[in-house]
Please model this.
Amino acid sequence: MRMAYIYIPWLLVAQFLLLVPLTTSKVPAIIVFGDSTVDAGNNNVIPTLLKSNFKPYGRDFPGGRPTGRFSDGRVPPDFISEAFGLKPLVPAYLDPAYTIADFATGVCFASAGTGYDNATSDVLNVIPMWKELEYYKDYQNKLRAYLGKEKANEIFSEALYLMSLGTNDFLENYYIFPTRQSQFTIKQYQDFLVGLSEKFIRDLYGLGGRKLSLTGVPPMGCLPLERLTNFLEDHDCNEEYNNVALEFNGKLNNMVRRLNKELRGLKIVFADAYHIVYQMIRRPSLYGFEEVGMACCSTGTFEMSYLCSDSSPLTCTDATKYVFWDAFHPTEKTNRIVVDHLLHSLRGKFR
Model:
């Protein structure tokens, strides 16, 4: 999910670095698991209401087309793939426009609305994490048939795996429905989710994955929808939710340190996007932003998915002035800045 204080030179350098392929990279493919922060369009073809394959989503995407990415443009895996010298777009596995040849250098299994907890994916009938892993197994079989076992296995072991999820578990599950609250305190639920994250990573390791970037949750109390409902603090960030995010990220980071020691050959980076996003929200002018409390789409307060309408006269004309595109998701510009911040650790570990 992250610094120099002189905005213009820093950003120009950041954008230049993102456009320079890493020709010495040993990463042959980018393989993505998670939620809407990294979904490239898998939700387009499943029976869920949580979709974004219509305008104004994608209006700043190449060709101005909506793809199912929850943004006005590209999402983090696209920028990471390009920065490692691979293609500038990571395709969705369920998109019928692509074949196994397209997936050989990158593939996305993520599903908007999912979480570590299966109960989270049930809320909006999206793809649970166990199913994302099943799709990955199917992908492995197809790639072995396409490239041969030896070459495919080399890709599986050298690929960079990206995992980004967790926010939905809290905001769309724990804090909304009583079931998990009756079973867990918030700290216990954090531990429960960390345990599920560890199991997924161990399963991925068992399938040959060795290079992994795990992103924690952002300052979720600063999402426009959470600010809208934070009446007691005059619609400022909900710092209770932000503190939960920080504590959860700390637990994920501790798990990452432990697995790096326990699992031979495994290299995990905890990609902490929290602080860079929080900095953008608290000091937006450093990054050229003008609006942080509301999103670009429609009223910018509660809309996402089908409520984010192309016909709304309130939708902003320039998304680069906004940190958030809809009530839950960042703009392409925010995604780019976050990725540039994360690339320092990713390059150091995996090039």
